[in-house]
Write a structure and sequence with these properties.
Elements lengths: L42 E2 L14 H9 L3 E3 L6 H7 L5 H8 L1 H4 L11 E3 L3 H13 L11 H14 L6 H11 L12 H4 L12 H7 L11 H16 L10
Helix pairs in contact: 2-3, 6-10, 9-10
């Protein structure tokens, strides 16, 4: 490639980056329920069952408390939705109804004062929280090859607002290094000046350092770091790596 077209004059100020954050929202589903009439309310704890183990007296109550279901006595004006919200029932009024369907009957809108409802157990709530955590998407994994390096670079670029496409990166990589992450140019004017072009996208060290993207290794031979820095440089000078079709 033309020697003078390589990264001779890297810009001094990298373009600004935008970190993209994603937020989630939730909506509470409330079922209009017919209010009850009158009664007294209390959240009660079932009587402790006598321990048949050799646990120390101080430890036994803690075990019982963690596994014993809480109950609630319905009062006038209560609805399943209201009870579920006030007592943080996992799954809302639907879960509360499912757990007490045999007691409530076929109509969840009709609950009578004095009715005893099970609110579940601390152990069940903990299991539900653990299930929610385990259901969170795992961090992506990437193959240790050109396809994986490009895909990982694209994810890093997306976080920093750096434009570029898979095809644009792949096209330039194949022209510059044929996909060899340890490629080095020892013959052009940059090499003669002591700053040879290196890596997948043949970046000279001054350009790499100026456009290095946080979160990637400070190593111009590292495939992901090399691609990401080169795309950052191309974005600053050409608008995107997609606009590069020759020596740059």
């Amino acid at each position: 490639m033309p020697a003078k077209a390589k990264h001779r004059r890297p810009k001094q100020h990298p373009i600004a980056r935008r970190l993209a954050f994603a937020g989630t929202g939730g909506a509470a589903l409330a079922l209009p329920l017919i209010s009850t009439t009158t009664a007294g309310a209390a959240v009660t704890q079932p009587a402790a069952v006598a321990s048949v183990t050799t646990l120390a007296p101080a430890a036994a109550p803690a075990v019982e408390k963690a596994t014993a279901p809480l109950t609630y006595s319905v009062i006038g004006g209560d609805t399943l939705s209201k009870i579920a919200v006030e007592h943080s029932v996992n799954g809302g009024w639907q879960a509360l109804y499912d757990a007490n369907k045999s007691t409530i009957g076929g109509n969840p809108s009709l609950i009578q004062p004095g009715l005893k409802l099970s609110l579940g157990t601390a152990a069940k709530a903990a299991a539900a929280r653990a299930k929610t955590i385990s259901a969170e998407p795992a961090a992506p994994t990437y193959a240790n090859n050109l396809d994986g390096w490009i895909r990982e670079s694209l994810d890093v670029m997306a976080k920093h607002g750096i434009p570029g496409s898979y095809n644009g990166i792949h096209r330039n990589v194949m022209r510059e290094s044929s996909g060899n992450p340890t490629a080095i140019n020892n013959w052009d004017s940059n090499a003669a000046a002591g700053i040879p072009s290196k890596g997948l996208l043949q970046v000279i060290d001054p350009t790499f350092r100026a456009y290095h993207v946080p979160g990637t290794p400070m190593d111009s031979y590292d495939p992901v770091a090399n691609i990401t820095a080169a795309c950052n440089y191309a974005a600053a000078r050409y608008g995107s790596i997609d606009n590069v079709n020759g020596a740059y």
